[in-house]
Design brief:
The chain has 7 helices and 13 strands. It has 235 residues and is an alpha/beta fold. Strand 2 and strand 3 form a beta hairpin. The longest helix is centred in the middle third of the chain and has 16 residues.
Length: 235
Amino acid sequence: MKPLILMTARYEQKEYNDVYYDNVSYFRYVKENGGMPVLAPFVTTEEEAQGYAERFDGLLITGGEDADPSLYGEANTDSKDVNPAMDAADILLYHAFREKGKPVLGICRGIQMINIADQGTLYQDLVKQAPSHKEHNQFRLGKRNGKHDYCHDDVFEEGSILYSIYGKKAMVNSFHHQAVKDAAEGFMVSAVSEDGIIEGIEKENVIAVQWHPERLADEGSAALMQYFLKLCSTE
């Protein structure tokens, strides 16, 4: 049976109807590599999160808006469109799946939420807090940098899962202004951008990346999801 993957929802208030949603690319990414994606509403209690963790084989924490900096002990200076209910739901689900020993994959906001959930910190804005680094939102780099294009190289740590998938170096895309600052205790930093930003962390059956593999049509991106789904199918 194909592994059943719970995907975290995003939220939008509309004039006549509020919406839980996520991008089609995530659904395709899971489905085309052998999984069955299902979107979760915001959970509000540990009991509810544990119920999902019992029924699903793995958790995909997807991209989205900035996290509330109070979660890592900072005032909000440069974080935008913060949604505390979304943050709480992501963290509750993460801990529930971890307690059940089930695999978790984080993408973009996902790596940031995983890092926060385990007491790591973020840069709220790379331009302001780490100005020596390159632009990490490729939409600002001109028309040739669309959502399916590549942006910069990442270097992978030998011995990591990401190294086994991508090798020493690979091109990735980039759509963020926040990033992991201090990796949470217990995580291996398994990918770093060419200008030194942490873009991959992993421990046990948790893998998280800052880029968007679901938007890329390359062997490494497919292999990452296939590896995750294999973990989910053997737990």
